[in-house]
Amino acid sequence: MRGVTLKSRATAFACAAGALVFTLSLVLGYSPDQQDDLNQVGRALIIAILCGTLSWASTSRSMAATAAAVDTATERLLSAAHGDLQSPVSPNISAELPDLSVAMQSLFSQVRTNLDHVQSLALFDQVTGLANRTSFCRQVERHLTGRNTDAMAALFFIDLDGFKGVNDSLGHAAGDQLLARVAGRLREVVMAQVSAGTGDAVIGRLAGDEFTMFFPFLPGPSAAARIARAVQFALSERFDLGSQHVELGASIGIACYPDHGDTLSALLRAADVAMYHAKHQGRGRAEIYSSELALEAADRAELERDLLLALQRDEFLLEFQPQIDVISGQAVAAEALVRWAHPERDLVMPGTFVPVAEESGTIVALGDWVMSRVCETAARWAEAGQRQRIAINISTRELAQADFFLRLRHAMATHRTPASMLALEITESVAMNMEPRILDQLAAMRTEGLHIAIDDFGTGYSNLARLRELPVDRVKIDRSLVRDIASSAEARTICSAVVGLIQGLGMEVVIEGVENEAQMDVLRVIGCTLFQGYHLARPMDEQSYLTRFAVPLIVQERHIG
Hints:
single chain; alpha/beta; five-stranded mixed beta sheet; 22 helices; 58% helix; elongated; disordered C terminus; EAL domain-containing protein; EAL_sf
């Protein structure tokens, strides 16, 4: 089509040239003699035909060269569409159509750059430069598929300890910088193993703060344990991020081929189970997969499934433990504690199922159930004249939900629960790292009459300046601070200092975990009056609690009067 068009243009140009020459010949050779005039017309016509033919031939030749260049360009573009981006642009295109030649070269270069970038994105993690999940899995699968020996291989699943806190406190940019430094140290570990003759490894970043290493050939389990120690040593050294100094650790799970699996999915699953066990044994550990860990993981998975069913079947119940003012001898608040009436087990305590609920995400639904049940109970107590607050433990995951306070207000409105009947207990670590959005919401709830308490105080790192800024009414001292107070002068000094500082900030102090009278005697001397613990009362069902600790209405009126 393009060739026909160019030829038509050449023909039109030749006709126009001939017509112009014919007209000029007539004008310049005009004669009044009719015979001469006819001769002149004939000569002009011959000259016009010759001129038109020559013009057509010249233009056709030029157009043919251009058409050939266009045809060549079309063929080159078609080959590029089929993947040939490397061949150069033909010289005749550059000669006849220089602008098109430059545009084609620029286009091919840009497409090659984009394809290289896409390939990089598909194979490498952009933060660390390590193989991403897809690339790591492909490389390991090639190693496993091409094996013609049963020699041992090992997969290491590495989860950083404490990375989330760094990410939250220093920001994602610092977190990415830290991940890149971790990747560098893992490379150094592998290079050291190569130098020692152990062999090279595939290193990858699966997601977040999870890294993997695969050694295709190892002499035995002892070599795997040695590599794990090298990784832990490398990651335990301090990281310097500008003016910030960060200390991390790692929990490592190890799965060995072929004992723990002969496929990548089996090895990953086994290493993940071992890593999970290492993390829950105190972090900073390395564990090799075993059949015992497999049974533990299966039991945990069953517990997760049972948790969901328990919520549907309403198998949970509440027990209440009093916080007692030893001056008046009356309970001033009750902490609501959830229990699981499992149909096939004994009464399951929260220490068994709450961590599972936290990690599986079921804690949000469980927290909603507790919140609704406490609001309903508190409303009944208020209607009966009881003015003891009921305290609810709030988990980190619940607070992280954007609509947590909206759901709390909805539960209070549904049951018509006065805010003055409720208290929220938040752990020390959560309180110290709370977002401004959550602080504002807590302050608003506190203004409406709801109490805020910090639970397990003394188990983490507390900033007293930060504590002063928090909208808090009450601080609960953890049992670990008072356990040895009757026998240790150092424990008495520490506890006395902590209590004095908290009371100096205008907050109430509740001592948790009181187990004997000797502890209470010392704590009363220090200035504590609010206690909670087995020495005073164990958690009990609602009816037993009200029978024993309900404050008679006449006593309430006397206090009010």
